[in-house]
Amino acid sequence: MAQILAPTSQWQMKVTKSSATASPMTAKMWGSLVLKQNKKGPTRSSTKFRVLATKSEGYTINRLEGLLNLDLTPFTDKIIAEYIWIGGSGIDVRSKSRTISKPVEDPSELPKWNYDGSSTGQAPGEDSEVILYPQAIFKDPFRGGNNILVICDAYTPQGEPIPTNKRARAAEIFKNKKVIDEVPWYGIEQEYTLLQTDVKWPLGWPVGGYPGPQGPYYCGAGADKSFGRDISDAHYKACLYAGINISGTNGEVMPGQWEYQVGPSVGIEAADHIWASRYILERITEQAGVVLTLDPKPIEGDWNGAGCHTNYSTKSMREDGGFEVIKKAILNLSLRHGEHISAYGEGNERRLTGKHETASINTFSWGVANRGCSIRVGRETEKQGKGYLEDRRPASNMDPYIVTSLLAETTLLWEPTLEAEALAAQKLALNV
């Protein structure tokens, strides 16, 4: 639920050691994620996430903290690279670490690597090797220093993309000259839900029960309205430190649910940044002892689902006369509604019901400032006669490589027949 208007420069955040000591934890505090800061002394490029834990009856601080927070830069040029890839479900993130001899600035400087695909559901046991190709680099907010997170895609030893590698196809679309010339911008609104560890029930909800009806929770403040703010804030800062183009965050309509926005970003970068941000969120919730879910309808009933609304524009849409270009793009999207829906996330039919700020999954619609439509156009875009559109159909568990590239393909590369175009235009005219 955010408007993203223009790309901004990448932000980096430098956080230093803290001289403060932590208080012992109580037995009910399973874990806490604290970003250590210190205003004294020189700024350093290392960020420290403190992990607190209990030990026997004395509730002492975990002695591993000192080792976890070691700053290696004065002692070695070697760095740790965390290779991250998408697992067999198409939504799970996997990772493993390796030592690199010196700091790097570009993925081309990194070696390819491999993993056991039979253990991730991506290869048979008798031929299990899958090759990782480094594609994007981010600063590591957990290890700090020169250490990095590396977004990879996966290939067979023969160099063919494996079925769950959706990045390879997206890269082909974004390398098309017609797409490049239109400089596609994306602003992606990632919604997610936080669950209690043992019962898998939303954070802040009474176990086996329900909170008060929706209304006070969206962008709310207070112990009875906001659940998980520390996780949202820690994630926000970690993404800024990593170099992810995160542009905002807010509490969502359902209690225990949050949203952050990434973008505007150009082309495939938008999807790389979403995957990196998801990985960081998984790691933060892991340390906080909370479960993250991207299920599009985590709680059945009169509760909002979780989406991944995708704001999209091209150069022609952003220039004078762009509203007509937007209408032509919407027409194309209407003609490929079924194809988009099938690629917009598992379980989306439970979310797109025509209720709770969604359109029906079976019907394509668009409107100005209407959050109950498939495609929403903002009032400012209508007023200025140029701008962007918001595709409200993608589910929270969508693959951003698929959604971003499919939007570009449908609106820039795909041409409908004249008959289909005329029929669709007639139907859409009834929606406005």
UniProtKB/TrEMBL annotation:
It comes from the Eukaryota. GO terms for biological process: glutamine biosynthetic process. The keyword Translocase does not apply. One of its GO terms (cellular component) is chloroplast. InterPro entries: Gln_synt_N (IPR008147), Gln_synt_N_sf (IPR036651), Gln_synth/guanido_kin_cat_dom (IPR014746), Gln_synth_cat_dom (IPR008146), Gln_synth_gly_rich_site (IPR027303), Gln_synth_N_conserv_site (IPR027302), Glutamine_Synthetase (IPR050292). Pfam families: Gln-synt_C (PF00120), Gln-synt_N (PF03951). Keywords: ATP-binding, Chloroplast, Ligase, Nucleotide-binding, Plastid, Transit peptide. GO terms for molecular function: ATP binding; glutamine synthetase activity. Signal peptide: none annotated. Its EC number is 6.3.1.2. Residues 163-432 form the GS catalytic domain. Residues 99-122 are annotated as: Disordered. Residues 79-159 form the GS beta-grasp domain. Coiled coil: none annotated. It is found in: Plastid, Chloroplast. Homooctamer. Belongs to the glutamine synthetase family. This is Glutamine synthetase. It comes from Pyrus ussuriensis x Pyrus communis.
